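Hi support team,

I've been running sequence recovery on a batch of backbones for a student project. Most finish fine, but this one hangs at about 90% for roughly twenty minutes before it completes. I'm not sure whether the input is malformed or the queue is just slow. I've pasted the structure tokens below so you can try to reproduce it. Let me know if you need the job ID as well.

Thanks,
M.K.
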């Protein structure tokens, strides 16, 4: 049942303290000695399969939840931070990193935050002159980065808001009738807010006039976008106490970060309302994660569907662990989340061998790729290009590539795996997270050398790269 040693002392201790039990009484209840429990709680011994089963039986917990530890996201972020040459005299092994993230997650996050500040400071000083280097606040994260990390470390799942959205969706019949009509009727009946077409020269997607009680929507936006904006307005009118409480609990440094987080939480509610959890997860299974069919089924955009798939992290009822990202033509990742082992680099660009970059070359098509990262993990990767615009020939159009995928163990749940040679090692393309931390020595697409490897320069030999990695 357990394929690896599980050191989950902190979680066991928290479970015991939640039930206000002494070590002796807790150990007796799960059928082990007090000394064994003490060793488990201090991560001196791993949890056996029998103890794990006893915990699940006696305390009605999900084995997958307690055995998951703090997840790969924190471990990946810490590992990346410690790969910096700043720590060249310290190379912890995987077990040491797991012990830190499992027993002292707060310390791990603090170290990651300190490293982020160091990287921001170093990178800006390297590219700007010393007058900018004396600017105030260089080492602090931007409000946007703070909010991004908040959602990252809560698995992009906010239970209270998700459940509230799903509950209202059930009351309004979202998914059983036209969602736009259902939400518009609710907005007017409950809040006295009517929908109107925005002026042709107004490029805003949504503009709310609280005084007149009118929500103006851009008439050139797709129906899915207008539906989502109505759901956002409902969140603003009905969910503010919950949104404010969740945002305050994050203890952001600035009011700007607090307001950005509130916007993100309202967007989260809109997603939960238009794509309710249980119905959406059921459809994902029945349609084998076919993005186009799911978008048609819920009257949503492909981007909305892809993003929602990455939030299916409800305890005890999780979906397939998925990674999701949106990338612009310059290679900037403008949205990101991963419930899978694959984690996006926090600094630098994405791997050029990743199929997401090819999506811009084949607009309208869904591109498939089997990929393997340097740690040996294998993934099914899906990418497609989307265009956002409207408003006529002269209106600007924004183009993005969407990336979605899962570990190959879950590939059978995706229609996109059909016909691919999942069992063939040669079918998998070698990709990395980013050149800065990728250890592959034979990649001819490398943009920059890896941080912790020696370079060999030979003036008499010229390979595709001007150096070899020692």
């Amino acid at each position: 049942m357990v394929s690896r040693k599980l050191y989950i002392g902190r979680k066991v201790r928290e479970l015991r303290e939640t039930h206000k039990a002494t070590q002796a009484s807790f150990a007796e209840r799960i059928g082990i000695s007090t000394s064994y429990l003490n060793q488990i709680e201090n991560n001196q011994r791993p949890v056996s399969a029998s103890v794990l089963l006893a915990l699940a039986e006696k305390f009605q917990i999900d084995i997958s939840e307690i055995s998951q530890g703090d997840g790969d996201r924190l471990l990946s972020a810490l590992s990346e931070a410690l790969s910096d040459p700043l720590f060249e005299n310290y190379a912890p092994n995987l077990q040491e990193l797991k012990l830190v993230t499992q027993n002292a997650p707060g310390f791990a996050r603090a170290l990651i935050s300190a490293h982020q500040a160091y990287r921001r400071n170093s990178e800006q000083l390297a590219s700007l002159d010393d007058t900018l280097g004396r600017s105030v606040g260089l080492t602090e994260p931007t409000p946007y980065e703070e909010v991004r990390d908040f959602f990252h470390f809560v698995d992009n799942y906010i239970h209270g808001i998700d459940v509230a959205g799903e509950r209202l969706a059930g009351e309004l019949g979202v998914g059983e009738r036209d969602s736009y009509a259902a939400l518009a009727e609710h907005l007017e009946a409950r809040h006295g807010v009517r929908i109107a077409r925005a002026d042709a020269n107004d490029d805003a997607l949504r503009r709310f006039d609280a005084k007149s009680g009118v929500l103006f929507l851009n008439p050139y936006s797709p129906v899915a976008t207008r539906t989502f904006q109505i759901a956002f307005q409902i969140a603003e009118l009905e969910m503010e106490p919950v949104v404010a409480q969740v945002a305050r609990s994050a203890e952001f440094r600035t009011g700007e970060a607090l307001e950005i987080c509130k916007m993100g939480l309202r967007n989260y509610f809109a997603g939960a309302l238009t794509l309710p959890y249980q119905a959406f997860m059921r459809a994902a299974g029945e349609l084998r994660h076919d993005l186009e069919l799911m978008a048609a089924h819920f009257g949503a955009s492909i981007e909305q569907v892809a993003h929602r798939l990455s939030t299916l992290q409800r305890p005890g009822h999780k979906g397939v662990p998925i990674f999701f990202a949106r990338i612009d033509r310059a290679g900037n990742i403008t949205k990101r989340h991963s419930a899978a082992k694959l984690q996006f680099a926090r600094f630098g660009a994405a791997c050029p061998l990743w199929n997401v970059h090819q999506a811009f070359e084949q607009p309208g098509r869904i591109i498939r790729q089997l990929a393997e990262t340097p740690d040996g993990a294998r993934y099914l990767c899906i990418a497609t290009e989307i265009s956002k615009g409207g408003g006529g020939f002269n209106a600007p159009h924004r183009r993005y590539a969407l990336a979605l995928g899962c570990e190959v163990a879950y590939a059978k749940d995706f229609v996109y795996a059909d016909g691919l040679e999942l069992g063939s090692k040669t079918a998998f393309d070698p990709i990395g997270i980013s050149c800065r931390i990728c250890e592959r020595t034979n990649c001819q697409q490398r943009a920059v050398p890896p941080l912790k490897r020696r370079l060999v320069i030979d003036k008499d030999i010229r390979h595709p790269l001007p150096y070899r990695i020692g």
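--
Follow-up from support: It reproduced on our side and the slowdown came from queue contention, not your input. DSSP finds 18 helices and eleven strands in the chain. No action needed from you.
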